[in-house]
Amino acid sequence: MNRKKIYEEVEDVLASFCQDCFLRKHFRKEKGRTYAHQFCISECTVGEKLKRLGNELSDRT
């Protein structure tokens, strides 16, 4: 997969799943932005997919 396709997939995932995510909004309101961000990265399956795509991008440089 080339870099442009990876970026497009990341944008698609963010727009489809993360933009209106109830858990993200809830955790931001109740526990703060840092906690919500950490939850998304470490525990959310969508965050894991984004992390994998990010690793693919880093491997290409």
What is the number of independent domains? 1
- Report how far apart the termini are: 13 Å
Count of strand segments: 0
**Helix fraction bin:** over 70%
Tell me the β content: under 5%
Gyration radius, to the nearest Å? Answer: 13 Å
Protein structure class? mainly alpha
Largest sheet: none
Order of helices and strands: HHHH
Are there runs of 5+ residues with pLDDT below 50, and where? none
- The DSSP helix count reads 4
Shape: elongated
> What is the averaged pLDDT score?
93
Structural overview:
With 61 residues, this protein is an all-alpha fold. The protein has one domain. The chain is built from 4 helices and no strands. The chain is elongated, with a radius of gyration of 13 Å. The two termini are 13 Å apart.
What descriptive keywords fit this protein?
mainly alpha, elongated, 61 residues, metal-binding, zinc, Zinc-finger domain-containing protein
Q: Outline of this structure?
A:
This protein has 61 residues and is an all-alpha fold.
Set out the fold topology:
Layout: H1 3-18, H2 22-31, H3 33-42, H4 45-60
Helix pairs in contact: 1-4, 2-3, 3-4
